[in-house]
Design a protein that fits this description.
It is a single chain. By secondary structure, the protein is α/β, with parallel strands linked by helices. It has 2 domains: 64 residues, Tetrahydrodipicolinate-N-succinyltransferase, N-terminal domain (Tetrahydrodipicolinate-N-succinyltransferase, Chain A, domain 1); 183 residues, 3 Solenoid (UDP N-Acetylglucosamine Acyltransferase, domain 1). It is built from 5 helices and 26 strands. A 10-stranded mixed beta sheet has the order 5-8-11-14-17-20-25-26-22-23, covered by helices on one side. The protein has a 6-stranded parallel beta sheet with strand order 6-9-12-15-18-21, with no helix packed on it. A hairpin with a 2-residue loop joins strand 1 and strand 2. Helix 1 crosses helix 3. The longest helix is centred in the N-terminal third of the chain and has 16 residues. The termini are far apart.
C-alpha cells in the first residue's frame, strides 16, 4: 500500500508519469481496491473522518489513462471510459433495472439500488436504499441503513475538485429531491425533509431553543431538518435567502424505524 501511495503522489506532482506502465498499473490497482471495499477515500475514526487524499488523487488520474470504449448491455449502449460494476448476485446487492454503478464504487452486501446512479470512489453501506433517480457522487460516503429518497443528489469531489467528500452517516433519512454537496457531513440518524439543499456555505439554523444557532457544513446527530429562508440585505434591498432549519431532534432509540416514524409525524416533515 505504501508503494502504491508513493507512485500516486509522484504522478500527482508530475503528470508525465501517467504515461508509464508502472504508474498506470498503480492507479488501476487503487481503483480495483476501491471496487472491493479494501480502501476508502474517507473512513470514520471515532468522531473524526480521515480523508485518504492519495486515494482520491488516484480516482482523478484514472480518467486520463482510460480510453473511451463502447459498452453494450443487451439493447443498451454506452460510450465511456469507466467500466460498469458487475457481479451483483455474488456481492449480495439488489439492482433494479436501469440502476448503474461504476467500477471503483463499493456497495456493501444488502444495498438496494432502484433506478439510480453510484459514481466511482463512492462507498455505500449495508441496508441502504438508493431510491429512484437518486445519485451518489464520486467518492461520497453513505453509511449503513440510510434511505436516499427519490431524486436525491449527493455531490461528488471530481467536478469541481475538492478536498472533502460528502458524508451521510448511518441511519439517516434523506427526503425527496434533497441536494447535499461540497463535502457537507450529515451525522448519524439525521432526517432531511424533502427539498433541503446543503452546501458548505448554507446556513443550517437550529430554531429549537429560545435563540437561533447557525451552523455550516454539518448537520448534528438526530437533527430533523426542513427547508427555510432568512432575510439578507443587499445593495438592491432585502431578500429571502434559502437555508435549512433544524426544527427538532429524533429521540434516542434502539428501534430506528419507530424513532424515524415518530420524528416524521411529530414534526410534520414532508419526505
Amino acid at each position: 500500500m505504501n508503494q502504491l501511495r508513493t507512485l500516486i503522489e509522484a504522478a500527482w506532482e508530475d503528470r508525465s508519469l501517467l504515461n508509464t506502465p508502472m504508474t498506470q498499473d498503480a492507479i488501476r490497482s487503487v481503483v480495483d481496491l476501491l471496487d472491493k471495499g479494501e480502501v476508502r477515500v474517507a473512513e470514520p475514526l471515532g468522531d473524526y473522518w480521515k480523508v485518504n487524499d492519495w486515494v482520491k488523487k488516484a480516482v482523478v488520474m484514472y480518467f486520463p489513462i482510460c480510453k473511451m470504449e463502447t459498452i453494450e448491455v443487451g439493447p443498451f449502449e454506452f460510450h465511456d471510459k469507466i467500466p460498469l460494476k458487475s457481479g451483483y448476485e455474488a456481492k449480495g446487492v439488489r439492482v433494479v433495472p436501469h440502476a448503474i454503478a461504476r467500477h471503483g464504487s463499493y456497495l456493501e452486501r444488502g444495498v438496494i439500488m432502484m433506478p439510480s446512479y453510484v459514481n466511482i470512489g463512492a462507498w455505500v453501506g449495508s441496508g441502504t436504499m438508493v431510491d429512484t433517480w437518486a445519485t451518489v457522487g464520486s467518492c461520497a460516503q453513505i453509511g449503513r441503513n440510510v434511505h436516499l429518497s427519490g431524486g436525491v443528489g449527493i455531490g461528488g469531489v471530481l467536478e469541481p475538485l475538492q478536498a472533502t467528500p460528502t458524508i451521510i452517516e448511518d441511519n439517516c433519512f434523506i427526503g425527496s429531491r434533497c441536494i447535499v454537496v461540497e463535502g457537507v457531513r450529515v451525522r448519524k440518524e439525521a432526517v432531511l425533509g424533502a427539498g433541503v439543499t446543503l452546501t458548505k456555505s448554507s446556513h443550517i439554523i437550529d430554531v429549537t431553543g429560545e435563540e437561533p444557532v447557525t451552523l455550516k457544513g454539518e448537520v448534528p446527530e438526530r437533527a430533523v431538518v426542513i427547508p427555510g429562508s432568512y432575510k439578507k440585505s443587499f445593495p438592491a434591498g432585502d431578500y429571502n435567502v434559502n437555508c435549512a432549519l433544524i426544527i427538532g431532534y429524533r429521540s434516542e432509540s434502539t428501534d430506528k424505524k419507530v424513532s424515524l416514524n415518530d420524528a416524521l409525524r411529530d414534526h410534520s416533515v414532508a419526505v
